[in-house]
Amino acid sequence: MTEAENFTSVKEFILLGLTTHRNSQLLLFGVILIIYLLTVLGNLLIIVLVRTDKKLHTPMYYFLSHLAWVDMCYVTTTMPLMLTQLLTGDAAISLAFCMVQIYTAVALGGVEILLFGVMAYDRYLAICRPLLYPVLMNKSCQLQCSSTCWITAPLVSLIYIVCLLCQNYCGPNQINNFICEMLVVLKLACGDTKIVEAIIFGIGGFFLLLPLSIVLASYGFILHSVLQMKSSGRRKAFSTCGSHLLVISMFYGPLLWVYIIPKTNSATDCDKQIAIFYVLITPLLNSIIYTLRNKDFHRAVAKIL
């Protein structure tokens, strides 16, 4: 067997999933199917309402509709494959499809990270700079911010996928996760991957920490302004900002654990359990928290009904 044949011996990977017990797989299939349908329907409702109701044509809801698109696309790149594997028991995934899933998941996740930063900055301008808000966050600025998110993240994701494709995979081929996770796949590569890991962690750290710093700084200024409000307005602002920060923390926390905190070379069950938060829970929470607690959405739904 030649050296080239050794390097290309792995044609597919085996996803170990959340469990190997058949009854548990069928139970998870039902739960994840419900989560997927609720996520898609909830985010689709946000998009329809923002597009059809003129009173929702504001910067906050404009960015929220983009977030809904991201979440809907993100779960569609991950959950259908999970559901198929849980139902059929076939955990095999081709190398090419695995790379496609990694690219789309990382790109959409990157768009969501940037959108959280943009949305936090938007709330800072609305609360702390209300007189300048219509000028600073005009339609041109909204378009520029959203376009930057949708262009930057896929371009950065190309760097990741090129790094992965340049590696040689000659076994083993078992991925200890329920999706093709970039770092878990990289651990299966033959040869030294230290340079690639340094590139991934370096870019990932910057890509995560820069928007996170914008989020923390924005909500820090918002908190300072809210504390100087009257009690009635303060309660409403705390309720809104608190729910937003809950979603952001549940999204950023697991990502920081996976992509920033250094760990051993072995993929643990803890990593895939943590991945549940940003793969399954956060996209669903976005649609719930941003709609159920929002009186503007209640009015828009009542109007359509």
TrEMBL record:
Keywords: Cell membrane, G-protein coupled receptor, Membrane, Olfaction, Receptor, Sensory transduction, Transducer, Transmembrane, Transmembrane helix. Pfam families: 7tm_4. InterPro entries: GPCR_Rhodpsn, GPCR_Rhodpsn_7TM, Olfact_rcpt. It is found in: Cell membrane. The keyword Transcription does not apply. It is a multi-pass membrane protein. Residues 42-290 form the G-protein coupled receptors family 1 profile domain. This is Olfactory receptor. Its main location: membrane. GO terms for molecular function: G protein-coupled receptor activity; olfactory receptor activity. GO terms for cellular component: plasma membrane. The chain crosses the membrane at residues 26-49, 61-81, 93-121, 141-162, 198-222, 243-262, 274-292. The keyword Repressor does not apply.
